[in-house]
Design goal:
16-stranded mixed beta sheet; 16 strands
């Protein structure tokens, strides 16, 4: 019994820190089949991860992130940064099961579950295109960009993806930026009546000076 007891204790000592990390508010457990890198170094098959951890799977390999109330399947050739309740996807594909509203951010686009109930959805970012597939419960694609100017005339560009449907969006998001106030003001001034009047007056003055200072010889070359 003694060897068996020592073996059990050894396993508990190794596993316990990882399990405790996964139970914290910000921590999680990363499980992989050996083809995963973490912060630029090969990751152990089971290891604790914390915010700002960069995870990258190699070709033909997958990994799984297990957090409190959420699990994420990281598909092959995917780079993602773990940020507790948010995953920042650089490229690749993620499959999420979450009851804690874990979201995925790609640049200025964020995919967010609309309910705290169990939500299953996929997010893929390949070749400049973002594909969102909702399987269980709805998700919302939110846009955040300085180029998007919210006003009474501009509707929110957020998009709802109902369960059972999918949506594809360009990686670049946002509306065309409006002219700045300085440019708009400049255009208004140049088009104003004052500017036009000043232009006409300037032309008149230049013409007058040209005529007044013209020599007599040029006006009447036959004068004795």
């Amino acid at each position: 019994m003694l060897p068996w007891r020592n073996l059990v204790c050894g396993v508990i000592i190794v596993i316990a820190p990882v399990s405790l990390a996964a139970r914290t508010a910000d921590g999680a457990v990363l499980r992989s089949d050996g083809g995963t890198w973490m912060n630029g170094n090969p990751a152990l098959n089971t290891i604790a991860v914390f915010p700002d951890t960069l995870i990258q799977t190699q070709k033909g390999h997958t990994a799984k992130i297990e957090a409190d109330g959420s699990s994420v399947r990281v598909q092959p050739e995917t780079m993602v940064q773990f940020e507790a309740d948010e995953l920042v996807l650089d490229h690749g594909s993620l499959q999420l099961n979450t009851s804690r509203e874990m979201r995925v951010r790609i640049g200025c686009i964020t995919v967010v579950p609309v309910t705290s109930d169990l939500t299953q959805y996929d997010v893929t970012d390949l070749n400049g295109k973002i594909k969102v597939v909702a399987y269980k419960n709805d998700v919302r694609i939110q846009y955040k960009s300085a180029a998007i100017r919210r006003s009474k005339e501009t509707k929110s560009p957020d998009l709802l993806v109902p369960a059972g449907e999918q949506s594809t969006r360009d990686e670049r998001c946002g509306l065309a930026a409006k002219p700045t106030d300085a440019v708009a003001a400049k255009g208004a001034i140049l088009n104003s009546l004052t500017a036009k009047s000043a232009g006409v007056a300037t032309i008149g003055v230049v013409t007058c000076l040209a005529l007044c200072y013209t020599t007599d010889e040029s006006v009447s070359p036959a004068k004795p």
